[in-house]
Amino acid sequence: MPTLVTERGIVHYEVYGRGRPVILLHGWLGSWELWRETIELMGKDFRTYAIDFFGFGDSVEHTGDFTFGNYVELVNQFMDRLGIVKAPLVGHSMGGTVSLGMAARHPEKVVKVAVIGSPIEGKSLNPLLKLVGYKGIAQLAYKTPFVLDSTIFLLTRFGRAGAPVYEMVRQDASKVSVNAFFQSIGTLRDTDLTNEIADLSLPIMGFYGKHDVIVSPKQGKVLVKHAPTAQEAWFLHSGHFIMKDEPERFHSTLTDFLKNGTSSNPTQNIQAAERPATVPTS
């Protein structure tokens, strides 16, 4: 299990493939497991690094800081420790917001950014998620398995891959500490990147699903409005977990963007990338 020691804690990550580096960042209550199929498909073209944020998966934070700014610094230190001078960032939900924050604060290290169902404005989060950003409510939900499981079910049932996504998120949530649970979503709720992304000149692609009930899909329009280089890929049959709901089109569009900096036609299906021979097993 690859790990890396930073000033704030131990970072677990998975690395796979060959070629140019690409860093993958998961969302709230997630882990690197979200990207298992993605790194399998992209491994023949890129060397992929899938990180567990502090407090999620197998990463451990020593100072108890599970805020948006600390996650941006995690990515910054991760790249420094591994000698990754510059790379594209791909982030789902909270991970996409962190990716844009990294691009705004350390633009010299970021080649391009792909965000999937990511909030640009924290007010776009589902009201249930806004509530668990408060410590008292978070502790109640965290300590009451039925409440937490029911919330996860309600938030993951609207995509094509509802049952597998629910099980994946439920398993990942079982590893999250209560402080990471409420601090991370609380700081995301209060984030607004509209000013920070206005000066970005690197390629940006936003992936948004029509049936997303976790983050308003209208955030794709907000991204395009405020980031001058951004374009949007709209997925009519997806919820929040586009990579699970429409995997072939998602991966082909993402690969095209990473290779070319743009997608020739984000609204059309593109043939999925060929699978490499083996994938990580842990």
TrEMBL record:
Q: Which SUPFAM superfamilies match?
A: alpha/beta-Hydrolases
List every stretch annotated Disordered.
Answer: 260-282
- Hydrolase among keywords: yes
What is the superkingdom listed in this entry's lineage? Bacteria
What is the recorded name of this protein? Alpha/beta hydrolase
Give the record's keywords alphabetically: Hydrolase
Entry GO terms, CC: membrane
Comp. bias intervals (Polar residues): 260-271
Q: Where does the AB hydrolase-1 domain lie?
A: 21-118
List the Gene Ontology MF annotations in alphabetical order.
Answer: hydrolase activity
- List the source organism: Phototrophicus methaneseepsis
Keyword Ligase found: no
